[in-house]
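User: I'll paste a sequence; please echo it back and then give the predicted structure.

Assistant: Echoing your sequence first, then the prediction.
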Amino acid sequence: MTGFFGAASTTDEVLDGIELTGKRVLVTGVSAGLGVETARTLVAHGAHVVGAARDLAKAERATAEVRAAVGTSGGSLELIELDLADLASIRACADAIVAKGEPFDVVIANAGVMACPFGHTEDGFETQFGTNHLGHFVFVNRIAGLIRDGGRLVNLSSSGHRYSDVDLDDPNFERTDYEPRLAYGRSKTANILFAVEFDRRHRARGVRATAVHPGGIKTELDRHMPEGMLEEMVGQINEQLAAEGQPPFAFKSIPQGAATSVWAGFVGAADAVGGRYCENCHVTTNVTEGTINPVSEGVRPYALNPDRAAALWAKSEAMVGERF
């Protein structure tokens, strides 16, 4: 197994030589992109993966090759229905998992939406904050007791967290003008803060939580962007990179994008990743408030602030009407 990994590392390279037979992993969002690739590589290394998806028929189609290959690896894949934009669905799914009582070694909260038009979840939450953060907040906390001592939670965040801190006074944009990227930034900051506080609450039994940025990848996540918006953003990034004398931006492949999730879940040292933000298969050390190129490494201090994390936890409990 290689000792150093970076932006170009793939899932199979990160897990090279690692045997996951007997490990149980829950991954949300296994109907496309990173979720499917994460499930594929874990199953290929012998893990039993429980894959959650809103659209089970789509997930079955997307994971057909994964399920066809299980006989050669010893791993397996089970699909369950979970709509993170609907608290009733979340609670029903979590209750069913708890009733089975089968523990997990790692939970990877991978599902999410990005830059979608203004809207609300079934329970009236702004779509991105409600789906990306509150949905996982309720789901993960309801099954937290099933994470084995020494296990891990990996939250998929993004460099998009740099767009904004969370707004605990107006999380649903009732008094703030809605802007898709601003809302996305709030939800991705919330993913990091959730990991920070979850890690604090569970580390006594060896359960660690971390947040990861997968990198820039072409997946279905950009489906809500207006035509030409992504190309415009890449153009702006490349102008800045050129001004800095750096090469142009290049998208990661999906196996490269999912690599940091599996690295944080199975390779990185628990004490290193716990309560931290990871990207390019290592823990980010660049914590800065200054301007950072959108594709450079770095995390905003507000996203790792423990007081902010505790405040978000309390606000989230109040919003969903449930205490954990």
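The chain is about 40% helix and 15% strand. The longest helix spans residues 180-202.
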